[in-house]
Amino acid sequence: MSQPAVQVRFADRRSAISLAAFAALLVALAAAPVWAGRDDLRLLGEIYAYVALASLWNLLAGYAGLVSVGQQAYVGLGGYMLFGLTILAGISPLWAIPAAGLIGALAAVPVAALVFRLRGHYFAIGTWVVAEVFRLLASQASALGGGSGTSLPATIVIAIAPTRAMREFVVYWIALALAVAILGLILWLLRSRYGLALTAIRDNELAASSNGVDVGRVKLVVYVFTACGTAMVGALIFLQKLRISPDAAFNVNDWTAFVIFITVIGGIGRLEGPIVGTIVFFALRQTLADRGALYLMMLGAVAIAVMLKAPKGIWGLVAARLDWQIFPLQRRVVRLPGSASIRNKGEAT
Amino acid sequence: MPEAPLLEVRALSAFYGDFQALFGVSLAVERGEVVAVIGANGAGKSTLLKSIAGLMPGQRDAVLFDGAPIGDLPAQRVVARGIALVPEGRRLFPSLSVEENLLIGGQLRRPGPWTLERIFALFPALAERRHLPSTALSGGQQQMAALGRALMSNPRLLLCDEISLGLAPIVIRDIYARLPAITAEGTSLVIVEQDIAQALAAASQVYCLQEGRVAFAGPARAATRETIAAAYFGV
Amino acid sequence: MEWANTIVQGVLTGGLYAMFAAGLSLIFGVMRLVNIAHGDFIVLAAYLALVVIETLGVDPLVSLLVVVPLMGGIGYALQRGLLNRTLGDDLLPPLLVTFGLSVIIQNGLLELFTADSRRLQAGAIEVASWQLASNLSIGVLPLLQFAIAVAVIGGLQALFYRTALGRAFRATSDDPAIARLMGLDNAHVFALAMALSLGVVAIAGVLLAVRANFDPAIGPARLIFGFEAVIIGGLGNLWGTLAGGIVLGVAQAIGAKLDPGWQLLAGHLAFLGVLAVRPEGLFPRIRG
User: Fold this and answer.
1) Alpha helices, H only, B124-195
2) What is the distance in angstroms between the Cα of B2 and the nearest Cα belonging to chain C?
3) CA–CA gap between residue A282 and residue A287 (Å, rounded)
4) Closest chain C residue by Cα to residue B83
């Protein structure tokens, strides 16, 4: 009669409620084409893109400790693959998105081989240099407009859906689906043994490796996975914009600085953080939008202030204070009823 | 009216985060005296020295130097007052040569008898190696360099944290043989030691710490093997 | 002999890159801080020089007398007031804070000066050149800038290895806690290092502004050049940084000669090549 005495559970009652609320929100958002106008749909699409990018960066930097400031390489790569595959290879735009993701993943392998030789700050700037190389290569691609870029031809735009309204709905739903899928995959990854390995690596790499964690491989997997997701989001972003250029595609401010700000303001190392951060980012943007440079200065100042005063971000503050989690991620050891008693000094609740 | 002690530690408590390492430790060092602090590993000896030296935060009135409260001063202000620490494990600066390590000890240019030349006279082995990187020295030579570096600040009180650690007995004896030259200049000494015999031979007063508390305090003469063993191990 | 000209141009440009890199290398050496806004500070210095020149009517070299101490003061205040609080084992706080500074500086300059390209006028020296051989001529200005770069690096080396301040920098970098036992105030030492770094940045900014057009957005590219020069040359070695800058400059010059659009790419590929083959750099200083 062997029965396990304890079990690892992720959810608790409060997180179950929060998760249900989140699910209800998703349903409402999926129905947005019904209740939201064109501009709002675009805005929501942008929000989903940033939630996805920030969640992926959070996985890379907050969980795997790979602080990259070069993810714009994959955003731009994804965008250019979308344009390249549809314009030059005749692939349908909707299929081009996962294809871009695949190409992003493949490109990430040799890049990792190179940049993983650097550590810490040098790794960070090394990734930036790689992004610059991608940008320069894109400027050389005359088939896609070279330095000034190109627009998506009307024939391809129509291939998405026959009417403009349908097109906007389709792109919107893909954006929502992609963001949810990425969040879901990250959640699944973190709940798996990989997630445990990641947390161990984040806390103490040496200890993790001496406990049998293949640190190099875990980092590579996370890097490739992140590149794949980032490339898909990039493809979608530029599908929505209908126009691409090297400076826009590989812009370090748009795709890295803001993503980092979002993640840090929201709360790094926790899944809910990027969502909170994105909301704050867009709230700031909507209120200060016409101030241009001043808005950006304000953003930089807020990021600095949050980093100094609340390094765990807004969600970090809230969650610590109230012991909340929306996504069932925290591992709790639960004693099962009816098992033999264990005399144990420190039992986790 | 007897003169106030040079150093007075009054009911000092010290914490590493939530962990309490010292529980109300009291100690006094008279001018020109050599005091030994002994105890098992983890008893709190290094913590005591670090608290006095200002490397660890402390309560203002828990440490009095020459009558003035210094318990909350940061390390760079404590050394300016005249207390120097020879840290556990020597901790010379690897990027600096032997001579540069000594020179940086004299950064504050406090007046006093110790100069670069006098340190080299006290430790000729260092003079021979003055331009070598500090990492090229043997353990004993590194200890001498660490001592010399602390002396360069012309302290009135020198705190020595386990200077015998990891050294061969003959080297330990060699180093301890130079201590009288230091005290002859009027410098008071606090020696933290695992080598009890050496500590008792060098000191006039001995304190034994056990799990963060003073278990024995008295003249070195009065410290018999039995009293020490009882205080050391808490049996 | 056209290639000789190209190589020489590259070498001289390398001096400028080494200037970009010197300040970066310095603060990383002393306090393990990478300042993402480093390039933006170079541009800030250029604009400060512009303001000084336009208000006081002096020439760029004289403006250094104002800009260098001013930037040094900014560096001291910045480190003491803000950046000291980000130091520690975690990479993210200084990265994020300096990213924030980068955004603030770029947009602040944009608001004040617009995105228009500017240039500092240095007079006749800008076009003067020496004819060394029938096909080989060296611009006087680039040569002067190279000489200044060498002098600055030599000065920094002398500072680090022959002065008490340099000892203080090295000791604090080795072991900040024990450095305090020597009477050194870590906050003050780090702030002095940043002041020195921004002082060097000021010189680099003015040199850049005389040589090429500048606008608020060119900062990040200068950061990358500086960074590449440091990595190619090897960490912990300022002369190595000069060598790294030269390698970068020459690679870019060769690339530009083959095709103008390849200039930057050639430099980046040279960097990635060094990274692939010899990640510790060409002349790493072995840390004791």
Assistant:
1) 124-128, 139-151, 169-183
2) 31
3) 8
4) C181
Across the interface, of C108, C110, C224, the residue whose CB is closest to A132 is C224
- Please name the amino acid found at residue C132: L
CA A56 – CA A64 distance, rounded (Å): 11
Report the alpha-carbon distance of residue A122 to residue C228 in Å, rounded. 10
In this prediction, residue A347 carries a pLDDT of 43
Mean pLDDT of chain B: 91
**Helix, strand, coil abundance in chain A, percent, nearest 5:** 75, 5, 25
Looking at residue C35, the DSSP 8-state letter turns out to be -
- What's the rounded Cα separation, in Å, for the pair B22 and B7? 18
Distance from CA of C190 to the nearest CA of B (A): 15
Residue A191: how many CA atoms within 13 Å on its side-chain side? 14
Structure token digits, residue B53:
């030296």
**Shortest distance, CA C41 to any CA of chain B (angstroms):** 29
Q: Does C108 touch chain A (CB under 8 A)?
A: yes
Q: Which CATH number among 1.10.287, 3.40.50, 1.10.3470, 3.40.630 corresponds to the domain C2-277?
A: 1.10.3470
> From CA A216, how far away is CA A236, in angstroms rounded?
30
Give domain limits for chain C: 2-277
Cβ–Cβ under 8 Å, residues B87 and C150: no
Task: Name B192's bridge partners.
Answer: B37, B161
Q: What are phi and psi of B7, to 5 degrees?
A: -125, 130
What is the mean pLDDT for each group of 10 consecutive residues in chain A (349 residues)?
63 74 84 83 92 94 90 96 91 91 96 88 89 93 87 85 86 92 90 83 79 85 96 94 93 90 86 88 82 83 87 79 68 62 45
Please give the interface size between A and C, counted as residue pairs whose CB atoms are below 8 Å apart.
Answer: 118
pLDDT digits (tens, 9 = 90+) for C186-204: 999 999 999 999 999 999 9
d(CA B155, CA B147): 11
- The tokens of A132 are what? 């610059």
Instruction: Provide the pLDDT for residue C38.
Output: 95
The model's pTM is 0.88
**Is the sign of the CA dihedral B156, B162, B168, B169 positive or negative?**
positive
Question: Sign of the C-alpha dihedral, residues B197, B203, B206, B210?
Answer: negative
In this complex, the residue of C36, C103, C276 whose CB is nearest that of residue A297 is C103
For chain C, percent of residues with pLDDT exceeding 70: 98
Spatial distance between the Cα atoms of C192 and C73, rounded to a whole number of angstroms: 9
CB count in 10 Å sphere of residue B98: 29
| Residue from C11, C1, C24 nearest C224 by CA | C24
What does the block give as tokens for A179? 């963001």
